[in-house]
Amino acid sequence: MNYKEVLNQLPKDYKKQATRDLTVFTTSIFGETYVISFKELFDIEFPSILWVIRNRNMMTFYRSDKDHELFREIIGKKCINKEFSIYLVKELKNYTDWFNKFLVECNNLDLFILKREMFINNYRKFFAFHQAVCWGSDYLLEHHSEMHEIIKALGDVYAYNERVVPDVEKYLMDLGIDHFHYYETDYKGDKTFRDEGLFFSYGKKEEHFFGDELNKVEGYIVSLDKIDYGLKELKGTTTCLGKVRGVVKNIKDVNQLHLAKPEDILVTGMTRPQFNHILKNCRAIVCNEGNILSHAAILTREFNIPCIVGTKNATEIFQNGDFVEVDADNGIVRKLN
Length: 337
Description:
The protein folds into two domains: 3-223, no CATH class; 233-335, Glucose Oxidase, domain 1 (3-Layer(bba) Sandwich). Helices cover 46% and strands 20% of the residues. The chain has helices spanning 3-9, 24-42, 65-79, 82-105, 109-114, 116-143, 148-160, 164-175, 211-224, 276-279, 295-303, 314-317; strands at 14-20, 48-54, 58-64, 196-201, 206-209, 233-235, 237-240, 243-251, 265-268, 284-287, 307-309, 323-327, 332-335. An eight-stranded mixed β-sheet has the order 6-13-12-8-9-10-11-7. A five-stranded antiparallel β-sheet has the order 1-3-2-4-5, with helices on both faces.
């Protein structure tokens, strides 16, 4: 399959879903979760997804909005069944405990290689349950908010597994294998990294794109997402109430975190545990991504900071120095200057 065939296969609602500081190793595993583990565990298929890796450990993830909404709906309706929700909670907790133990006990490359296959299989399944809990609970909150017990159980286990991915990322970097695909077995030698696109589909498991072909694939997808840069306000999901005004600090990369100052209104794609040390000093948080159980939602409720997530394009509309009002009571962020 060449890149032109890939372009012909992509639906018109293909969009950027996330930008994360994820390693190549993790990305190559999570990509297969969408086309393998979701089918095996939940009988849900994603026809195609694309992960673009640039600057070695910075990933951008693209998928169809329609495919994601279908996944969210199917998982959410399954979660109405208490037995299924308990199953998700139990499995995610078990995988979280397994990784916490593994990262301590297999603390060198030789030990990792001995248990490599188990690590890969468990990481793929961990991510599947992580996503199912996240989006299943999101569906329940929207359509069945009266199911307090189930929603709380899903929320608690989601908070419990929060550290697994960043801890695994650090572990892989400490071992020096973070820039390898999981199926590359020669971990001993040097490797020159180049920007790469990993396209997964259930028709053909994986395709790789580099250079001009990668730019053409990504450029085509970006062209589908029409952003009105003249917008003065965006709506999203409130995760902590409040109304404040302040100056925007737009953070698109965790390497920029040191630029955030106390009392800034932090605008970012989505917060992760690496943001914890700055969040409590922010005046408000605004995120492109996320839902009521996302990292930003959990932390801002703890710190009682106004927060709006799921705005989709906040990092494109609100730039450093903009004076904005975050009206989390109504889920609106508006530019004032």
